[in-house]
Design brief:
This protein is mainly beta and 334 residues long. It has three helices and 15 strands. A hairpin with a 5-residue loop joins strand 5 and strand 6.
């Protein structure tokens, strides 16, 4: 158990040292994390909560919590939102807390095409529970109850500020966009060292190839194709997926990975099979949506991680009387 705790710590520290943001399989169920342009994109109030447990067979080595709220101001064609992210890694609870506000503005370019620029201001804090760590000299002595010669961080909770921007374009059946995160390169060095978070670039989009509805229910069946591309530091990732919605049920399937791509760093070798296959099931009842997804690992780690579980809950409601039928983004809801 001592060695397992040390391995979990090393894995967690390595992941953070390489500078990767947490990712969500149901990124459209967490739209404000995907891009600030989605703030207010439903035309009403929306509360979203997401829980993700990645690699559970390694004793909850990566656990992420997300909460967001957004509102659309129809008279100003504007959306505002707040986003809270808590990500914890390893036995020492190495993690990041993000709290931010965002703003988006809907521009009607033509009768069919809209643009939504968005910005996100963010307070961020990285911290670690030093007293939960087990060091090599403690393992060598045969007991974890004694002390260690290792010195604690000078600042175990490192605060900083950050900024992100995005642009989203959409029609009745198409959407595409991109986002740039960590433009201020916040410093997460716990030992007074300069450890800047790398900028993350992402692009996303898709199309509704089937859309059916009735008089009382304008949209009760859709089939959508979508993609999500992101690059950060030496890591490049691509998700390709399909969603089928038949009220009230949503089913989805995703492939994550870029076959035969080895990245920009010669020391980083990508498994040619990709990273994972993701399966999604969602249920929508009036204003409430609940989704569950499971990532099945297909890389060399298939026998070691246990995949990833993710649960999303979204509640939408209207606080003001709707004055006109504004066109909203047609992307999936999970």
């Amino acid at each position: 158990m001592k060695r397992l705790a040390l391995v979990i710590l090393i894995v967690g520290l390595f992941s953070w040292a390489k500078g990767q943001d947490p990712q969500f399989t149901q990124f459209y169920a967490n739209p404000l994390y995907l891009a600030p342009s989605f703030a207010g994109a439903t035309g009403q109030d929306r509360i979203t909560s997401v829980y993700r447990n990645q690699w559970p067979e390694l004793n909850n080595v990566f656990v992420t919590y997300s909460f967001s709220y957004d509102h659309f101001f129809e008279n100003f064609n504007s959306g505002v939102g707040i986003l809270l992210i808590r990500d914890v890694a390893g036995s020492g609870n190495l993690g990041i807390l993000n709290a931010g506000v965002m703003y988006s503005y809907d521009i009607q370019v033509t009768d069919e095409f809209h643009l939504r620029p968005g910005i996100h201001f963010n307070y961020t804090q990285q911290g670690i529970d030093y007293h939960k760590l087990i060091w090599n000299d403690q393992l060598s002595s045969g007991s974890t109850g004694g002390g260690t010669i290792e010195q604690p961080p000078t600042d175990p909770y490192k605060p900083d500020v950050d900024f992100s921007a995005s642009l989203l374009g959409y029609t009745e059946r198409l959407w595409f966009g991109f986002a740039v995160d960590h433009l201020l390169r916040p410093n997460y060095g716990l030992y007074n060292n300069d450890a800047r978070w790398p900028i993350k670039y992402s692009a996303f989009g898709g199309a509704q190839i089937i859309k059916k509805g009735r008089l009382l229910n304008p949209i009760d069946e859709t089939l959508s194709l979508a993609f999500h591309f992101r690059h950060q530091y030496i890591y490049t990732q691509l998700d390709l997926g399909v969603y089928w919605y038949k009220a009230p049920l949503m089913l989805g399937f995703w492939y994550r990975g870029i076959p035969f791509f080895k990245g920009s760093n010669p020391d980083y070798q990508k498994d040619p099979r990709g990273d994972a296959l993701a399966f999604l099931v969602g249920y929508k009842l009036d204003q409430l949506r609940v989704g569950y997804s499971y990532d099945f690992t297909i890389s060399n780690l298939v026998s070691s991680t246990g995949g990833a579980h993710e649960v999303s809950i979204t509640y939408e409601f209207k606080t003001t009387r709707k004055k006109r039928n504004a066109r909203m983004v047609p992307c999936p809801e999970f």
